[in-house]
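Recap slide: AzlD family protein, sequence and predicted structure.
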Amino acid sequence: MIDPATLFTIVLMAGVTYLTRIGGYVVLRNRTLSARATAVMEAAPGCVLISVIAPDFVSKNPADLAALAITVLAATRLPMLPTVLIGVGAAGLLRHFMA
């Protein structure tokens, strides 16, 4: 059973991530962005996702730390979506088998 606060946090972070993506398109749709501004707009959802996993940096749970290491390794080699999927899958599997 998922904690209601955790579920609320996940839904809120997903909403903020979606709004940052849609907001950028709506507000800036008729403008030509510089390469730097484009990079900032593309990095915003990743920053929100990092805020979700940041507490695991201080976790004492070995499954969370291992999943974090796998996610960081995936992030160095893969785009964001596969990295997120690998991170979520690793956390779920490691928590199941190491708990």
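The chain has a mean pLDDT of 85.
The helical segments are 4-27, 35-53, 62-77, 80-98.
(End of recap.)
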